[in-house]
Amino acid sequence: MTLPSANPRIVESLYAEALALADDARERFGQLRQQQADQQARQDDEDLASVKARCEALRTTTRIMHCLAWLLNRRAWFAGELTEQQLRRHGRLIAHFPASDPAAVSEFSPAVQRVVHASERLYERIGRLDEAWQRWPGPSPEQAGASPTITRLRERLVQAMARAG
Q: What domain count does the chain have?
């Protein structure tokens, strides 16, 4: 049985996308913090917009980091560094991560809005993969202790024997 909707190529592609998005988020929110620091120098009190920006920066970067953690766990599993049991126990995406506040996001620059929305889309995509992964029955009991590489080799052997047979 093969894994639904996820394979090393998809995981690697999403991982590269998540890393690029993390860099973009760091840069955009850094620019936003600098702009607000400049404004703050002109004001005595921290305003609500600054608090909203900090909250959204934290929410967005945390969302991206959860995606990266999920992808790193899949990469480790594909490389044989995690067992199926370890992956199922520790490799789930956090369900129902808080969404961004649309009103707060609408106050940001288009570049920051793009990063926030891209992080939400990435999280949704990985959420769908996680749901499919959790529904996947996993290896048969005799394969439970085998690494993913051994499991795939066994599957290929069974298929080759069926063709020859």
A: 1
